[in-house]
Amino acid sequence: MARLVLKFGGTSVADVDRIRNVARHVKREVDAGHEVAVVVSAMSGKTNELVSWCREASPIHDAREYDTVVASGEQVTAGLLAIVLQSMGVNARSWMGWQIPIATDTAHGAARIEDIDGSDIIRRFAEGQVAVIAGFQGIAPDRRIATLGRGGSDTSAVAVAAALKADRCDIYTDVDGVYTTDPRIEPKARRMDRISFEEMLEMASLGAKVLQVRSVELAMVHKVRTFVRSSFEDPDAPGMGDFENPPGTLICDEDEIVEQQVVTGIAYAKDEAQISLRRVEDRPGIAAAIFGPLADAGVNVDMIVQNISEDGTRTDMTFTVPASDLDKATTIIENAKSDMRFDVIQSEGGLTKVSVIGIGMRSHTGVAATAFKALANRGINIRAITTSEIKISILIDGEFSELAVRTLHSVYGLDKARP
Amino acid sequence: MARLVLKFGGTSVADVDRIRNVARHVKREVDAGHEVAVVVSAMSGKTNELVSWCREASPIHDAREYDTVVASGEQVTAGLLAIVLQSMGVNARSWMGWQIPIATDTAHGAARIEDIDGSDIIRRFAEGQVAVIAGFQGIAPDRRIATLGRGGSDTSAVAVAAALKADRCDIYTDVDGVYTTDPRIEPKARRMDRISFEEMLEMASLGAKVLQVRSVELAMVHKVRTFVRSSFEDPDAPGMGDFENPPGTLICDEDEIVEQQVVTGIAYAKDEAQISLRRVEDRPGIAAAIFGPLADAGVNVDMIVQNISEDGTRTDMTFTVPASDLDKATTIIENAKSDMRFDVIQSEGGLTKVSVIGIGMRSHTGVAATAFKALANRGINIRAITTSEIKISILIDGEFSELAVRTLHSVYGLDKARP
Predict the structure, then answer these.
(1) Is A368 an interface residue toward B (CB < 8 Å)?
(2) What ipTM does this complex have?
(3) Which of A203, A330, B44, B268 is most buried by its number of CB atoms within 10 A?
(4) Which domain holds residue B334?
């Protein structure tokens, strides 16, 4: 017998029929003798509808009222799932964030969970009761509903799993696991059995979109074994209830990964834009002068590359922003030109960042060189490079995106089945 | 300066534009210096949608989960109205039932309010804050959301007004007051300035549909001056903000009604059915034998008429039920024929009950005779009669409904403007 937290996202609970399918997944685990808590999102489309009403009510709105409105979506799903579970003979009850309680900080609209009191739920596990928890919400110190920001139900699930000391947190979603790269681009992409928290964090933040970054961070901190699997498979298909080896990808501590690969996956992010400032005066504080105003305006600066110019008094500064922020960013920089002291600003959209990710990189050399050589052989020009301990990111022209992903996926042997 | 509770129903808050209109009504009262609490229903259609999801989830469902799902509708409206009010510069915040708290009994799905702690709201009145309260909901002793049953927002409003010791509870609805009869049937129907609680209770329970019966009972018990008015008029039209004499109908204690009429209004209820049991054995307990099983099955028996038969050992028993319950009622009676000991059962649908209501009846004689004579003059056959202190109800064939209403409206002089 194990203790499991199952999380189902918006598309998995889009209507009552799908909620019934979710209930079959839950019942399977209950019938296997596990203690089960379920975390649910709003029915797909509902959150957008509620958010649009708030915007229509006023473009600038009190985050506490926004939270009150938007949190209602998860409330509905939790109640409906409890009803369906009961109709299948499963003892279940719904829990709102304020009932558990899931205590958050005061940052309404993007709150952080501070504490979860799991004692009531654990007590009811002993009575065989399933807890159906409204995701995405908690209660702030002002005794008002707080939401965790978009995609927050993943975070709710991981936090609940940590509080309940669950053996595993199963994230049911519309994909059946984490792949070595995007299967729509590279059909040879393989589903990984396991990936480390650190690698998943890079995959998630680089656009793999399976899990919210914050939920992976939280899972890493609390060492919550998190499992990504599909909610759309037949809940009673063979192997679905296999506790040791169900179909999907386990995100876990690297110690749990026996067969470590040097490179685990290839991620990419399209629609990047590059801004270059030529002949910036090379003095202390210049980076702050440039990036401070951008940060204040909420522009998310990603790769930053700085070269020393020939005469040593001027430098070239290149960085990337999401293409959607390009106009805003260039306007801010033009307006602050006198502070920033550069000669020319150049910018270009339509770029892609491809990233090679692998925890094994830390102990292997030549990983970057292999990437550069493989891209060069295909005639793909590299515009910028940044690296971390477990990741190499390369900025290229958008038209080469798919070719670059396939090339890198192949050169590190990810096409081949693991031994 | 007065303390007001304003209540807006589903059609008044059907979308964000209408909510904006509601906010203008609220702002008008705030600008006039009043302390204001607002009680809101779900956006029209939302409650039905939520209820249908519950039914789809399972025809028989846990009332606590039903409450969790259905109460979300009012939560959304309360948050949205608070946002709109703030955008108009009105200090406002939303309150859920559990936040105030509005304590109910344990009868989830049709709970009764047991206590409202108005202290927080009153404290914030002093800071100029408007309370926007989700109607229809409270918190049960199990710390779970409880709803008051359909139309419960009227009851919420009156209960809040009693708890806050409000000077008046304004029920904004899609009609502009209480009329002497249905204006769709009798164009000469006039809006009453005032009606007593007792009369309104008869009007409401007889199908006038302006206010929920329970809310009127509650208003009567707590002597909450309740005012019915239209939410669809221009909030800033002349007279709308007149505290002493706004457009609408005041439901109040009879002491407040100076010019008492003998008859105040004519109500009607269509789609009634009549069941007659012929030659019922006239013995003690026979009424219980007949009506017990019907009550157990939830059939709402209304008018009951019993005549002694010629030989004194048998009696004829006639009663009415809603036409929609007729088949159920006759089946129950047929099945229990051995207990009930009657000869023949006769039934007929398509009937109408018209009622003459007036507190002045208590001190005037001949009111009933006037009705019978007027109907006879029009050739309308009377099938059954029941009377109370302030009401005469007459069962007639449905085809005469409109004629009977107009005849009675005229014979008591209700067509004419009051002096």
Answers:
(1) no
(2) 0.85
(3) A203
(4) 263-410
